Amino acid sequence: MSEVTIIGIDLAKRVFQVHGACSDGSVAFRKKLSRSQVLAFFTQQSRCVVAMEACATAHGWGRELERLGYEVRLIPPVYVKPFVKRQKNDAADAEAIVEAALRPTMRFVAVKTEDQQARAMLFRTRQMFVGQRTQLINALRGHLAEHGLVAATGTAQLKRLADAIEDCGTALPEGVRDLGQIYLAQIAGLNARVAELDMKMRSVAKEADLARRFQTMPGVGPITALAIETFAPDLTTFRRGRDFAAWLGLVPKQHSTGGKSRLGRTSKMGQRDIRTLLVSGAMAVLQAVERFGTPNKGWLTRMRARKPRMVVAIALANKMARGLWAMMTKQQDYRVPVAAMV
């Protein structure tokens, strides 16, 4: 036990498998623990490296083990899978976690703080309510379309449906009208919840200096700034802005071989929430350029003349990601590029 230098844990709900290894990689022990036995077991061990897959409960366990003095390494599950030998079981998974953590070039996930996870819950809750609202609106549109009342998609068209339901002159059965009122009440309740969460997110974004700095960039609002601070690791861990853009999945996917580079579509291999918000912000900037001819955006106008709108938006989102990395590492607010002012 005293020679153990790394312990891998295969996390679960009730039964945990731990795998201890020595400095040369040889097996020191294999144990199966219940949830109540985990902390007691690690209290008795000598302090070393503990490796886990970066899953839903990994950050909570990581904080507990760090309080005990262990060095915690979280590994993306996709990087652990190649190290599983033949049959997949808990013991093999724990051993594979150790093997992956011992690789000198392995990439790890930073353990999130409780505040980060609380902000993530705020963000996810708002996202869930928005999805439920969209589901209800689409369901109402579908039901009313069966009775000849057709409206375009989008929340802006909801008023037309509400007016038709409340208008007694509309040729709708009474049962459909009553059920439509239930839908409208649910949608109104979700609107109030989303507005309340938006206010909370704006207040949290105002309190954080980093989020305030991010919002100085065009196309980055309080929700995007808060998402970057919540879901992204410390941006100084990336060597350059392109690495951060690649982490977000905003770079082309490679299919290169034989020394010949082949670049495909956008990889989307990264943090989905931040990537989606940056692309949405880029679309808003592009729309402003098209409508109002915003100055210092000549390269967007030239690219828009040659490329589809979504391609231009993704290129702008990539540039925004690299700019956010530069703002963070240099501790500066957004500045309009000098070359664009000439």
Topology:
Blueprint: E1 6-10, E2 15-21, E3 27-34, H1 38-43, E4 49-53, H2 58-67, E5 71-75, H3 77-80, H4 90-101, H5 114-145, H6 158-166, H7 174-207, H8 209-214, H9 222-231, H10 241-248, E6 252-254, E7 263-266, H11 272-292, H12 298-306, H13 309-330
Parallel strand pairs: 1-4, 4-5
Antiparallel strand pairs: 1-2, 2-3, 6-7
Helix pairs in contact: 5-7, 5-9, 7-9, 9-11, 10-13, 11-13
Short description:
Helices cover about 55% and strands about 10% of the residues. It has helices spanning about 40-45, 60-65, 75-80, 90-100, 115-145, 160-165, 175-205, 210-215, 220-230, 240-250, 270-290, 300-305, 310-330, and strands at about 5-10, 15-20, 25-35, 50-55, 70-75, 250-255, 265.
